[in-house]
C-alpha cells in the first residue's frame, strides 16, 4: 500500500502517486471494520458503568456528533482528496507548522492509545478463552507480548494490509452477529431478561443524568478511532469525490446501528455491575443468553481477531506518521530510517511500540480503576480534540476559492455544532476522569519536546527550513 521512496535532483525523498485500488465495497468494509472492533467488544461494560442500563444512549450521541463532523470531513476530503487527513487540513487552514505537527502527532498518539487498549482486550480474552487463571500482572505481560508481535509484523511489512483488513472485518462482524442472534434467541425462549434495565439510569459519584451521559459519551467516542483512518485512504480510493460521501455516511450508519443493538442486548441480559467488572463483556452476554451452547468458548477468540485488527491498523498508521514527520524534518531524522532489506520504517516502529509499552505498564501499575477504560477514554480525548480542529478548518478553508465547485459542501451550521460539541466533551465539564488528561498530556509533552529537539538538530545540520512542506506525504512510507 505504501510506495517506495525515490530521490529528486535536490536530494529530497519524493513519493510516487498511490494506486487507487479501493472501490465502494472495499472502502465500506474498511470504514465499518475500522469503527467496529475494540470499542464494541471491550467498552460496552465501561459505558454501562457510567450511565447504567441506558448504555445505548452515549453510543447514539457519540455517533450523532461523529456524523456531524463527518460532513466537515466530507467537504474537506472531496476538496483536497489526499492522504494525511486532519494534518493536511490544519496545514492548509492555519499554515502554522507547529500546529500541523501537533495535529499529526495527536492523531498518531490516538492510534497508539487505541492499539494499547486493544492489547489489553486481547490479553483478557485470551485468558477467558483458554480458561487459564491469571492476575493483573499476567494480563499486562501478555498485552506487552501482543504489542511486540504487532511490531514484528509491522517490521516485516504489510503490503496486503487492506485485504487482511477485509478478512478480519468479516470475523469481527461475524462475532457481533453471533451476539445479536444470541440476544434474539434469548428473547424468544423466555430467558431471564430485564428490559427495564435498558432505560434505567444508574450513576455514580452523585452525577446527574446529563453529566453521566456526557462522561459516558466521552468514553464511547473511542468507537470513532477508525474515522480518521478512513479519510487517510482518499488517495487510494477510486473517484473519491463521488464515492466518499455515501460510503462514509453509510459506514457510520451501519456501525451506529450495530453499537446500539449490542448495547441493548448486553444490558437486557446481563446486570450492569457484571458488565462493568468484566474485561470481556460480550462473553458475559453470550453466557447469559445461550448457557447451553458452546458459543461462549468461541467468542473470546473471535474477539481476539477483532481487536488485533484494530491494533494492527493503528500501529501501522502510527509508525508511518512518525516516519513521515521525520522525513519532513519535524522529528529527529533517525526516526525516518528504513531497513535496507525489509524496507520498513524500523526505528519509527520501535519508537511507537515503546510508547505503547509505556502506556500499558503505566495503566497496569497506576492506582486507577479500569485500564481499558483509561486507555479508551484517552483515545477519545485525543480524537475529539482533532474533531474540534477539523470543524474549524472547514470554515476557514472556505476562503480557498481556487477549490470551490465540484466538491461536497456541508451546511454551515453543522461544523459550528460539531466544534462546540467536541470541545465540550474535551473539557472536564463533561465529567472526564483526570487520569485521561494525565496520559494525554504526557503524550503531547513528548511530542513538543521532540519537536524542539528536532529544531536544534536541524540547526546543527544547517537545515534552516525544516518543517512540514507536504502533509499529504506524512503517512507515506515503504511497504
From TrEMBL:
The keyword Transport does not apply. Pfam families: AA_permease_2. One of its GO terms (molecular function) is transmembrane transporter activity. It comes from the Bacteria. It is a multi-pass membrane protein. It is found in: Cell membrane. Belongs to the amino acid-polyamine-organocation (APC) superfamily. PANTHER family: AMINO ACID TRANSPORTER-RELATED, INNER MEMBRANE TRANSPORT PROTEIN YBAT. This is Amino acid permease. It comes from Mycolicibacterium duvalii. The lineage of its organism: Bacteria, Bacillati, Actinomycetota, Actinomycetes, Mycobacteriales.
Amino acid at each position: 500500500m505504501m510506495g517506495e521512496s525515490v530521490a529528486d535532483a535536490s536530494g529530497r525523498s519524493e513519493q510516487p502517486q498511490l494506486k487507487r485500488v479501493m472501490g465502494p465495497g472495499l472502502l465500506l468494509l474498511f470504514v465499518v471494520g475500522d469503527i467496529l472492533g475494540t470499542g464494541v467488544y471491550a467498552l460496552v461494560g465501561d459505558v454501562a458503568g457510567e450511565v447504567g442500563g441506558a448504555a445505548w444512549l452515549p453510543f447514539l450521541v457519540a455517533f450523532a456528533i461523529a456524523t456531524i463532523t463527518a460532513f466537515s470531513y466530507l467537504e474537506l476530503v472531496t476538496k483536497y482528496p489526499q492522504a494525511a487527513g486532519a494534518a493536511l487540513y490544519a496545514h492548509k487552514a492555519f499554515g502554522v507548522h507547529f500546529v500541523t505537527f501537533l495535529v499529526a502527532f495527536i492523531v498518531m498518539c490516538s492510534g497508539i492509545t487505541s492499539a494499547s487498549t486493544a492489547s489489553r482486550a486481547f490479553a483478557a480474552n485470551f485468558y477467558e478463552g483458554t480458561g487459564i487463571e491469571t492476575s493483573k500482572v499476567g494480563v499486562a505481560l501478555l498485552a506487552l507480548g501482543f504489542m511486540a508481535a504487532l511490531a514484528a509484523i509491522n517490521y516485516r511489512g504489510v503490503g496486503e494490509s487492506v485485504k487482511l483488513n477485509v478478512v478480519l472485518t468479516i470475523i469481527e462482524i461475524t462475532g457481533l452477529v453471533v451476539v445479536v442472534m444470541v440476544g434474539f434467541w434469548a428473547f424468544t425462549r423466555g430467558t431471564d431478561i430485564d428490559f427495564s434495565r435498558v432505560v434505567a439510569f444508574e450513576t455514580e459519584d452523585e452525577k446527574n443524568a446529563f453529566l453521566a451521559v456526557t462522561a459516558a459519551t466521552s468514553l464511547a467516542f473511542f468507537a470513532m478511532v477508525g474515522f480518521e483512518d478512513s479519510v487517510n485512504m482518499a488517495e487510494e480510493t477510486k473517484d473519491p469525490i463521488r464515492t466518499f460521501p455515501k460510503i462514509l455516511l453509510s459506514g457510520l450508519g451501519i456501525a451506529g446501528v450495530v453499537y446500539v443493538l449490542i448495547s441493548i442486548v448486553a444490558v437486557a441480559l446481563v446486570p450492569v455491575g457484571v458488565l462493568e467488572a468484566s474485561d470481556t463483556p460480550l462473553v458475559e452476554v453470550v453466557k447469559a443468553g445461550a448457557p447451553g451452547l458452546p458459543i461462549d468458548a468461541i467468542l473470546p477468540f473471535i474477539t481476539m481477531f477483532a481487536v488485533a485488527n484494530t491494533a494492527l491498523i493503528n500501529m501501522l498508521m502510527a509508525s508511518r506518521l512518525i516516519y513521515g514527520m521525520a522525513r519532513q524534518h519535524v522529528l529527529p531524522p533517525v526516526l525516518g530510517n528504513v531497513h535496507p532489506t525489509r524496507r520498513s520504517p524500523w526505528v519509527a516502529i520501535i519508537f511507537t511500540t515503546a510508547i505503547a509499552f509505556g502506556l500499558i505498564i503505566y495503566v497496569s501499575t497506576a492506582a486507577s480503576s479500569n485500564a481499558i477504560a483509561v486507555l479508551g477514554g484517552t483515545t477519545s480525548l485525543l480524537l475529539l480534540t482533532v474533531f474540534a480542529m477539523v470543524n474549524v478548518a472547514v470554515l476557514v478553508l472556505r476562503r480557498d476559492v481556487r477549490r470551490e465547485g465540484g466538491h461536497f459542501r456541508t451546511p454551515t451550521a453543522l461544523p459550528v455544532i460539531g466544534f462546540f460539541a467536541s470541545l465540550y466533551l474535551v473539557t472536564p465539564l463533561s465529567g472526564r476522569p483526570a487520569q485521561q488528561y494525565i496520559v494525554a498530556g504526557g503524550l503531547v509533552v513528548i511530542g513538543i519536546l521532540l519537536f524542539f529537539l528536532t529544531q536544534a538538530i536541524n540547526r546543527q545540520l544547517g537545515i534552516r527550513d525544516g518543517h512540514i512542506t507536504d502533509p499529504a506525504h506524512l503517512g507515506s512510507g515503504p511497504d
